[in-house]
Amino acid sequence: EIGVNSIFLFFHLCYNVLMPRSLRITIPNLPLHIIDRGNNKQVIFKENKDFFYFLKLLERYKKELAFKLYHLCLMPNHIHLMIEPTREGSLSKIMMCLTLAYSSYFNQKNKGVGHVWQGRYKSSLIGEEDCLKNIRTQLDRGVYGQEDFVWTMKERFKTGSLRKVGRPRKEGA
Questions:
Q1: CA distances for 83 relative to 11, 19, 28, 51, 99, angstroms
Q2: What angle (nearest 5°) sits at the alpha carbon of residue 50, between those of residues 116 and 56?
Q3: Residues whose CB falls within 8 Å of the CB of residue 36, separated by 6 or more in sequence, listed in order
Q4: Rounded distance, CA 123 to CA 120, Å?
Q5: Residue 87: other Cβ atoms inside 10 A
Q6: Strands 78-85 and 67-75
Q7: pTM above 0.90, yes or no
Q8: I need a labelling partner for 23 at 20 to 30 A (CA). Which of 49, 113, 171, 172 fits?
Q9: What pLDDT was estimated at residue 12?
Q10: Hey, is 15 helix, strand or coil?
Q11: Containing H/E element for 44?
Q12: What is the mean pLDDT of each run of 10 residues along the chain (173 residues)?
């Protein structure tokens, strides 16, 4: 006899266990707010040279994978990126390249193994131009009022150079 509990269990298994996670749909030329965090909220940028290395990776993959980078905020244990993929389905490749390359660097430098990033990155579509400005302003203020923000851009990229990135944190802070 099949009861309500059996049906619930069947649908729960199908939806949460047997079904793969949903695909990310990337529509070209629509800006996204990306958030990725260190595993267990660990610090992933321990020194200024770690920030510089991540910025070099961004510059490299921005050229190779042809995405627009409108804004960024790199904090000690997580990142915020405002990007616009220009190719269909390229968001996952962009994030895979960035996170794998940085993970390799981080683990080698710190004699670590395993995950550096916690789970899947979060992505949300950014709507109107005003919304884009509001998010940039929020990030420039240090994201949610935190005082430990470290690297942020004060204006949009125009030249493709990462030289307009904000102030580094004080070493040891």
A1: 36, 29, 11, 18, 15
A2: 100
A3: 78, 79, 95, 99, 117, 118, 121, 122
A4: 9
A5: 14
A6: antiparallel
A7: no
A8: 113
A9: 53
A10: helix
A11: none
A12: 54 55 74 93 92 93 93 88 90 95 97 93 77 64 51 46 47 49
- Other C-beta atoms closer than 10 Å to the C-beta of 146 total 10
How would you label 42-70 residue by residue, b for 16+ Cβ within 10 Å and e otherwise? bebbeeeebbebbbebbbebbeebebebb
In whole angstroms, what is the distance from residue 145 CA to residue 149 CA? 9
Q: What are the φ and ψ backbone dihedral angles of 17, each rounded to 5 degrees? A: -115, -50
**Closest to 154 (Cα-Cα) out of 145, 144, 142:** 142
Report the run of H or E that residue 32 belongs to, with start and end.
Answer: strand 32-37
Structure tokens given for 109: 């430098």
In the block, which residue shows the tokens 């395993």? 114
- The span from the CA of 17 to the CA of 123, in Å, is 23
Using H for helix, E for strand and C for coil, what is the string for 64-97? Answer: HHCEEEEEEEEECCEEEEEEEECCCCCHHHHHHH
Q: Is 35 helix (H, G, I), strand (E, B) or coil?
A: strand
Position 19, amino acid: M
